[in-house]
Specification:
This protein is mainly alpha-helical and about 250 residues long. The protein has two domains: about 50 residues, no CATH class; about 190 residues, no CATH class. It has nine helices and two strands. A hairpin with a 5-residue loop joins β1 and β2. α5 runs antiparallel to α6. It starts with 13 loop residues before the first helix and ends with a helix.
């Protein structure tokens, strides 16, 4: 039996190294073990594999999952629900029915509940939907009343300016602008509640901007719609729908 001392070490000479042939791997085809020149197998290179990778087209998500769409739709539906609940008891003029009292707070409340439910549905979280809805309910009522009072006070300022300037009819565009200013102030309520419920200053900022714009436009077209259809209820519905949609879409 040979011992360790009988084993001879392996020696590689310079002549052995000179006889080694290195195949050109880069020139070989990309694919499973192709045969290159000299009979050597070639598996391609990293760069070649990357070049032959299939191009994946960039795909955009569904419009229904875009924040501006589902939040805008939720705000619109919430505003319509709040308006519909109070409109039957609303009295034009100096009315003091529960419909007059609860119209704007109800709209803000249902708008914010809609925002919370829509966001939670996209996130697939029933718990968040319940929590946001419960938080939006008291905040919408309280801040709705506060902003309603402030909006009426501010609305009376440009309205008194119009009266002093001799404007006596709601057909005058100056009255439309005055109403738009008052509605814009109230429009900030929706964005404020939305930001508090979502615990986000960014949501509050853009919500307030959207509410100001949407409610302002709704207020300015309020009287023209009345002149066109002779129905104040329809005018309120359109104005509040714009308010809810713009607040969410922003």
């Amino acid at each position: 039996m040979p011992t360790d001392n009988d084993k001879q070490p392996l020696k590689i000479t310079a002549d052995d190294l000179a006889r080694v042939v290195v195949p050109d791997v880069a020139a070989g085809p990309v694919g499973p073990a192709g045969t290159g020149s000299g009979g050597a197998k070639s598996y391609g290179t990293i760069s070649e594999a990357a070049d032959m990778a299939p191009a994946v087209a960039e795909q955009r998500g569904s419009i229904f999952l875009q924040g501006w769409f589902y939040l805008g739709a939720a705000g619109l539906l919430g505003a319509i629900v709040g308006w519909g609940l109070c409109e039957r008891s609303f009295v034009d003029g100096a009315g003091h029915t529960w419909g007059n009292l609860m119209m704007l707070p109800a709209i803000v409340t249902f708008m914010c509940i809609g925002y919370g439910v829509a966001e939670s549905a996209v996130e697939r979280s029933v718990r968040k939907a319940i929590l946001r809805g419960l938080l939006a309910l008291p905040l919408g009522v309280v801040l709705g009343f506060i902003f309603d009072i402030v909006a009426n006070l501010i609305y009376n300022i440009p309205l008194s300016v119009c009266a002093e300037a001799g404007v006596q009819s709601f057909r005058n565009p100056a009255v439309w602008i005055a109403r738009g200013v008052g509605w814009a102030v109230f429009g900030a309520a929706g964005g404020t509640v939305y930001g508090i419920v979502g615990q986000s200053m960014k949501k509050a900022k853009y919500g307030v901007i959207g509410g100001l714009i949407g409610a302002g436009i709704g207020g300015m077209i309020f009287d023209p719609i009345i002149m066109a259809v002779h129905r104040a209820s329809l005018s309120r519905a359109v104005g509040f729908a714009l308010f809810g949609a713009a607040t969410g879409a922003a």
